[in-house]
Design goal:
Blueprint (H helix, E strand, L loop, with lengths): L6 E4 L9 H16 L3 E4 L13 H12 L5 E2 L25 H13 L3 E4 L3 H13 L22 H10 L4 E4 L6 E6 L3 E6 L7 E4 L4 E2 L1 H11 L4 E5 L6 H11 L7 E5 L2 E2 L24 E2 L5 E2 L9 H9 L14 H7 L10 E2 L2 H14 L2 H14 L3 E3 L8 E2 L4 E3 H11 L8 H5 L12 H7 L2 H15 L7 H14 L4 H13 L7 H8 L1 H15 L1
Parallel strand pairs: 1-2, 2-3, 10-11, 12-15, 16-18
Antiparallel strand pairs: 4-5, 5-8, 6-7, 8-9, 13-14, 17-18
Helix pairs in contact: 1-9, 8-10, 11-12, 15-16, 15-17, 15-19, 16-18
The chain binds one RNA strand of 75 nucleotides through helix 4, strand 7, strand 8, helix 6 and strand 15.
Length: 536
RNA sequence: GGUGGGUUCGUAUAACGGCUAGUACUCAGGAUUUUCAUUCCUGCAAUAGGAGUUCGAUUCUCCUACCCACUACCA
């Protein structure tokens, strides 16, 4: 049994966008599969015809792809949608709605061997029974006691059962939960768990109305048919684990039953409770990997659109509830595959920390080359009406009037601002003045620094810069410029801030030498003239 | 209500039953710097409570408290 191939699956329901907790579950499944040289399967569990949301499946696929989680098998194997079975995909199709023909006979098999029965209660009848129980302050459970008072194949005469089966379509197949039986289970993360069946109910396994199984049946049948070796899923499934164990027993599949691992939930950063899809925008951070627009046209932000790198997002997510056993925090997907281990997965729920997510992005941003960041910055510049021309080998050029800059100029800017940014979009916010001549000056800063005793010296420093000989680099300029100011015994800070106000419109930010070396002598002169005209 | 799961600084976590309970994020202070940012240094801050086992418990057992999930013809 230990020799069998590792095959795990991620089986989301297309009832909406996948949220980050779902991505984490998919990630852990993926890491486990790859580490064991096995298969990662993406199966779509669309057995609830009422809750189907158009676009959700596509969203799930795109989100996983963005994260670099590519299924070996499933609806999106190797980045291509698989619809039918083939030699390469003998287990297809992977959408449960396309497998509906499979389930009925398994449900019937269970009825035949006494593990299930036909139930003829209509949804309305059950609702009434529940309401009645609630009125008495009780909770109705469909179990070994109550089922004998209801209409089903255990209480009705055989002919009546046959007639209802043939003539009505409201019936279901329900699991016949055994009485007073202790189910002993083992979880890879939580250890040994025991539950008495008397606390469990008779779950619906198959619905005649839409000829579809419920989660429980579909799940067990498909996991068996697809030869799943480990089931790694969310903690919300732990209460139904006894039923699943019993189902494997009922089918006689216990010898190939997968091993189970139930992952703790992702909790919201403040207060208690799990991170839910609705918390999204209220809390000021995305809960979805990608932006999602619902049927009402309301948008929920996504990590991708917010400017997160997929590597940062995945790394952050991996560390939420898992650790490598040492102090390492930075992992590529491949490194995660190598380091991952289910027994290092935390049992308790993990509160998501938005600050840490940002920190990860900052770290990954710094790891990236200036060229890569420049390329990522281009769309942001375009949105601000900046035209970028040329190539990385071309000479540097800047035309502030026409808002036209060479690629190398942009790269110089990126090199200057990358240590101050969390997201690529921050490059612009940090120093718009490296692309646009300041049109206005920060009032507070101007009031504080633009005084005759500072402005005069600042203008003289500008003249010094204009007359500076040799290549105009920050390193070459810095020393002589400071020496120039110092030799005249001017207050360094005040003069510098005055100069920065003229060049940047604000008194704080990048180093003067860096700004000057970037925008060039001509633009420096233009900006000094402009501030004289505006502030006098 | 019932069943199951969980509980180490604010957060994520580390600690064969054995040093002063470590690290990262956040926050605060300091150094460097023309400002801001970076960087570096320092600091704040935790074993939910109570019994028990033990020479010794964050770690094992039990009880209590609190939190979470489940309790649908949803997954």
């Amino acid at each position: 049994m230990g020799e069998r191939r590792t095959r795990v699956r991620f089986a989301p329901s297309p009832t909406g966008p996948l949220h980050m907790g779902g991505v984490r579950t998919a990630l852990y499944n993926y890491l486990y599969a790859k580490q064991h040289g096995g298969d990662f399967i993406l199966r779509i569990e669309d057995t609830d015809s009422h809750r189907f949301v158009p676009g959700a499946e596509e969203y799930i696929i795109e989100a996983l792809r963005w994260c670099g989680i590519v299924p070996d098998e499933g609806v999106d194997a190797d980045g291509k949608v698989v619809e039918t079975a083939s030699e390469r995909h003998p287990h297809a199709p992977y959408r449960q709605s396309q497998r509906r023909g499979i389930y009925r006979r398994y449900a019937e098999e269970l009825v035949a061997n006494g593990w299930a029965y036909y139930a003829f209660d209509t949804p309305q009848e059950l609702e009434a029974v529940r309401a009645a129980a609630e009125a008495k302050g009780e909770t109705f459970i469909y179990n070994q006691v109550s089922r004998m008072q209801l209409r089903n194949s255990l209480t009705l005469p055989q002919e009546e059962t046959a007639r209802l089966l043939a003539e009505t379509t409201d019936w279901t197949v329900r699991f016949r939960m055994p009485e007073n039986t202790v189910v002993a289970m083992d979880d890879l993360i939580r250890g040994h768990i025991e539950v008495n069946t008397d606390t469990l109910d008779d779950k619906v396994l198959w619905k005649r109305a839409d000829e579809l199984p419920t989660y429980h049946l579909a799940n067990i049948v498909d996991d068996h048919l697809m030869e799943i070796s480990e089931v790694i899923r969310g903690e919300e499934w732990l209460p139904s684990l006894p039923l699943h164990y019993l189902l494997y027993r009922a089918f006689g599949w216990e010898d190939t039953m997968p091993r189970f691992a139930h992952l703790s939930l992702l909790l919201k950063p403040v207060g208690n409770g799990k991170l839910s899809k609705r918390d999204g925008d209220k809390l000021g951070f995305p809960v979805f990997p990608l932006q999602w627009t619902n049927a009402e046209g309301e948008k929920s932000r996504g990590y991708r659109e917010d400017g997160y790198f997929p590597e940062a997002f995945v790394n952050m997510l991996a560390m939420l509830g898992w650790n490598p056993g040492d102090d390492r925090e930075m992992f590529t997907l491949d490194e995660l595959v190598a380091a991952f281990s289910l027994d290092k997965v935390q049992k308790a729920g993990a509160k998501f920390n938005p600050d840490k997510a940002k920190w990860y992005n900052r770290e990954y941003l710094r790891l990236k080359s200036d060229e890569e960041l420049t390329d990522a910055f281009l769309p942001v510049l375009a949105a601000h009406g900046i035209t970028v021309t040329g190539c990385y080998a071309c000479p540097v050029s800047a035309d502030f009037a026409r808002k036209e800059f060479s690629k190398n100029y942009v790269k110089n800017v990126v090199a200057l601002v990358k240590m101050r940014a969390t997201f690529v979009a921050d490059f612009w916010e940090t120093a718009p003045y490296l692309f646009e001549t300041p049109q206005a000056y920060n009032e507070k800063d101007a009031a504080k620094f633009w005084k005759p005793e500072n402005a005069g010296p600042a203008l003289e420093v500008a003249d010094f810069i204009a007359g500076f000989e040799g290549p105009l680099t920050a390193a070459a300029l810095e020393g002589p410029m400071e020496e120039f100011i110092r030799s005249r015994e001017w207050p360094m800070g005040k003069v510098m801030n005055c100069l920065r106000l003229a060049l940047a419109g604000v008194s704080s930010g990048l180093g003067i030498a860096d700004i000057v070396a970037t925008i060039g002598k001509e633009e420096v002169r233009a900006r000094m003239e402009r501030i004289m005209n505006v502030l006098g």
